[in-house]
Structure formats: C-alpha cells, structure tokens
Design a protein that fits this description.
Blueprint (H helix, E strand, L loop, with lengths): L4 E9 L4 E9 L2 E7 L3 H4 L5 E4 L4 E4 L1 E6 L4 E2 L2 E2 L4 H10 L2 E9 L6 H12 L6 E7 L5 H12 L4 E5 L10 H14 L2 E5 L3 H13 L6 H6 L2 H18 L3 E3 L5 H12 L4 E5 L1 H5 L2 H4 L21 H10 L4 E2 L32 H10 L5 H15 L17 E11 L18 E11 L2 E4 L24
Parallel strand pairs: 1-4, 1-5, 6-9, 9-10, 10-11, 11-12, 12-13, 13-14, 14-15
Antiparallel strand pairs: 1-2, 2-3, 5-16, 7-8, 16-17, 17-18
Length: 467
Amino acid sequence: MSTRTLIRGGLVVTAADEVHADVLVDDGRIAALAAHGTTVAEGWTADRVIDATGKYVVPGGVDAHTHMELPFGGTFASDTFETGTRAAAWGGTTTIVDFAVQTRGRALREGLDAWHAKADGTCAIDYAFHMILSDVNESSLKEMDLLVEEGVTSFKLFMAYPGVFYSDDGQILRAMQRSAANGGLIMMHAENGIAIDVLVEQALARGETDPRHHGEVRKVLLEAEATHRAVQLARVAGAPLYVVHVSAEEAVAEIAAARDKGLPVFGETCPQYLFLSTDNLAEPDFEGAKYVCSTPLRPKEHQAALWRGLRTDDLQVVSTDHCPFCFSGQKDLGRGDFSKIPNGLPGVENRMDLLHQAVVDGHISRRRWIEIACAAPARMFGLYPKKGTIAPGADADVVVYDPHAVQTLSAATHHMNVDYSAYEGRTVTGQVETVLSRGEVVVDRRTWTGRAGHGLYTPRSTCQYLD
C-alpha cells in the first residue's frame, strides 16, 4: 500500500532555494511542493502529516565516500552495511556510495560481486558502489567499460599504499585514458606513497613510533605533489579527475589552479580535516591513534584554506571517508609502531550536523550546506535529481531538521559500531529529527523505525558536471 505523507510548515532548503513550503510525498517520491498556507497546500490530504513548523526540510544527505566492512591492515572496518547505513540514517544521510575492492590478480567483477553480497538485503538506506582498481591491466581496463554501462561509473586509484592498492603513473594514465573514452570518473587518493614509505622507515628507525608521527611522515608536500601529478596525467589523458579527501592548503591550490584553467578537476574534503587537527594526533597515552587516517590530519592553519575552497567551489563535496576501527582491539594493533595502526575514522553519522554547525559558525550558507552534502555529490556521481534535492519526481529522501536543538556528540549516544567518537564531547547546534527514505519513515522524532533491507542498490549515470 502506498502511503501519502504531508510535511507541513517547514523551511524547505535545497542547493538552489529556500522557501516556506509544504511537501507532499506519494508512492516513495516527492509529488508536489506548494507554499505553506495557500489554497493548493490546504487542499492536500495525506495518511500521515508531519509538522515541520520551525524546522528545516532538507534533502537526505548523499555520502559519496564510505568503507563499510573494508579489509585493511589485517582487520576489517567495524561497521557492517547494516550498522553503518543505520548510523548514516540517524545522521540524516539517506544514500551512501561505498567502494567495492578489486583483489590483485582477480577480476573487477569478482570484487563487485563480493561487495554486492555484503550489502544485499542488509542496508537501511539506498546505496551504490565505486570500484577500487588495485590491478590495472588489459583485462581490468576492458571491464571498466562494462561496469560503466551497468551503473558503476567511478573508479578509485591510489598513489599511496605500495604493495596494497598502489598504481604507478603508467597504470594511472592507462586507466584515465580508458575513463576518458567510456565516460567514467577517476577518483584519486593523491599522496606520494613511495616517498612516504621511505619516511616511515626512517622515522621508525629513529624510534618515532607514536601516532603523531603518522601525520609527520605523510607530508603536506607529498599530498600536493601527488595532486599536481594526478592533474597533469589527467590532462595528458583528456580525462576528468576527482581528488578524494583533500586535507592541505597546498593540495587545494593545485586543484584551484587546474580549475582556473577550465579543467574538469574536482575536489572533496571531509569533516575531520575541517574540525580536527594534528593536535588530536598528538593526544597522549596512544589516544592519538583514534585519529589516524590517510590523508592525515593537518595543523589547524590548513582549515581556513579548506573552508575557503568550499566557499569558492574549488572543493565541491564533503564526504566522510567513514572507515571505523575500534580503539580497543583494532587501533591498538599499532602500539609501538604507528605504521600498523589501521587507517580510518568514524563519521558517517556526524557529517550533516557538523556541516550545519559550519552554517551556525558562518563558514558556509544554508544552501551551500545542502549543496556540498546532498546535491553536489549526487550530481558528481550520477544520482541527481533522483537524490540530492526536494523536487517533484525525486525520491522522497527527506530530513526534518531542528536547527535549534543542541546536542553533544559522544560514543555513548552515537549509532556507529565503534567504541569511540572522533568528536567526543563536542557540542553542536542542530539535530536530525525525522528521516524519510523513499517515503518510508526510518527515523521518527528521534526514534528508529527503519529496517535492514529497506535500502536498495542504485545504479548511477556518469558524472553530471561533464554533460
């Protein structure tokens, strides 16, 4: 049975508009919007009426960079597709794009099938996949064309992690040439992993084993250099480029310079680079291990450049790179050797709230909040306007957001399957109240009503910034 839902009296905020409007949801989609109090809106009837007076009505968030159940460093990310997507919904995110991993020497298809098997029937919200290319060869290049045709339209390559995910410049060029021909988008982890490994070895030899040294060896210049190199390789290939988890002012500058030339180069940053810093990595008693991720946290002075990049659209997207490992039993694999600390932070539940705090703090506007968290990731990865906006015909992925509620972020109250919060004790203004996923209420006034298996796999078109 189809349920008609009416969301009444809120301020509808999209990337393009802010309007006091009622939103009618029918059969899982947005059926209509009408100005609140007008004859049209007053005439609507529905099975369920949600009062959004004094609240924002915003599109469900699109987190285009998550790693549920990712194998890394001899362990696995602690969130499953079930726990991770439930936590995402609690935080106002209604679509994730996760990364299927190709195993070296195996077909892309085998990796994609393995990730489908993990996610199928377990997700609380809709999901899609990128493909990590670990082994660029004639066979995997041909497979890229087939994946694009069936809606896996982006491919991640690594300039870091030699011996695991690393691709050399020749492999990267080949993959970029292929994507230039098939319409796919190359996503790049831009750090000079070969040079970083030398610095890691030297630091450990000097007895520098604490978590803070993770940030010190993964130098800003090696992120900037790799970003520059990725841009030049993409220019040679005539391919678009999306640089993931940009953390440093110098890397932003490389992306901005490319965009100033009119090149199809895009950048993403993450809340951890906007709100955390090397001060966290330096926390005593191995607490800094909680904050080990790659690219690493940077000194605080880099944050201003990231915010500026988001305001000027040199950075288009804020994703989480959600890849949680428990402090006890996982992060502590690296006691006495920072290079063995699993890389990754939890954050899928916190992104929408932290970015709303950025609105409160004056870093970005309300519409820009929705753009970088919802509309731009949906456009970047071929999901718009099905996802990322509130407009007739769009999926009814809708969040009723209380901009005045004050909450304290904590592991004691979050829903991610991890034993710490990267934002423990931080007070933010704004909180998700009610969440609809394709018209189904999954969070009802801060009560969970969703279910595993509601979320559907969503094939994607190619990057909509290139049309």
